[in-house]
Amino acid sequence: MPLIDRDDTTLVVIDVQTDFYPPRRLDVDRLRYHEMVQRVAWLTAVADRLGVPVVVTEEDPAGNGRTEPAIADRLPAKAVTLPKNAFAVWDNPDIADAIEATGRTTMVLVGLETDICVAHSAIRLHDAGRRVAVVDDATFSPGPAHDRGLRRLARAGIETLSTKELFYDWIRTDERANAFHDAHRDLPVPPGVRL
Q1: CATH classification number, 14-183, choose in 3.40.630.30, 3.40.50.850, 3.10.150.10, 1.20.1250.20
Q2: pLDDT averaged over every residue in the chain
Q3: What span, in angstroms and rounded, lies between the C-alpha atoms of 189 and 194?
Q4: Which helix (H) or strand (E) holds 83?
Q5: pLDDT at residue 192 above 90?
Q6: S-S: 125 plus which of 54, 80, 130, 161, CB 3.0-4.6 Å?
């Protein structure tokens, strides 16, 4: 597969909401979840600084809360945040319209949950003729559901890559990487990402 072209990419942040996993959910690895949120927040900030459009979804915001503040605080001014009722983003007309409005054909997906909303979204976008890539370390489902979701994506022919790989696909050269880091020292690299 070719490298991800930042000039043809939309970053889609799926359902990373404050109350998605309430305290009673004992199956949630809170450290893994927190690290995933930090990676999504970082990618959102990188997208903003590189001019990559961002579309954010919130499933049942009344019950699941709003987008995690670490992410919401880094959203580009032109980012669109929309409620999501159907699991696949493409099956929500307002979200599909927002994706279409970007004019981009490559969708990079991050967020919750790897085996359901991310998988459904990736498959439906792929079926609609979009190039789709899922950032495997910036998605999350509790327990074995995350790995099951990644296996399902692989069977469906959906690309996966890491946060680090996406950054370097967008940047392309050592010179640009150094210039980006020099210009954006306020943007610390998230846990688990070695640039």
Answers
A1: 3.40.50.850
A2: 96
A3: 8
A4: strand 80-84
A5: no
A6: 130
Amino acid at 90: W
CA 65 to chain centre: 18
Nearest to 17 by CA among 81, 73, 67, 85: 67
191 pLDDT higher than 90: no
Per-residue model confidence as pLDDT tens digits over 44-75: 999 999 999 999 999 999 999 999 999 999 99
Strands 159-161 and 9-14: unpaired
Kindly state the average pLDDT of the residues 138-148. 97
- Round to whole Å and give the CA distance between 144 and 5: 31
Locate tokens 């309430």: which residue?
A: 22
Cβ–Cβ < 8 Å for 84, 41: no
**165: amino acid identity, one letter:** E
Integer CA distances (angstroms), 173 to 19, 133, 138, 176, 188, in order: 39, 21, 23, 5, 20
Residue with tokens 């000039």: 7
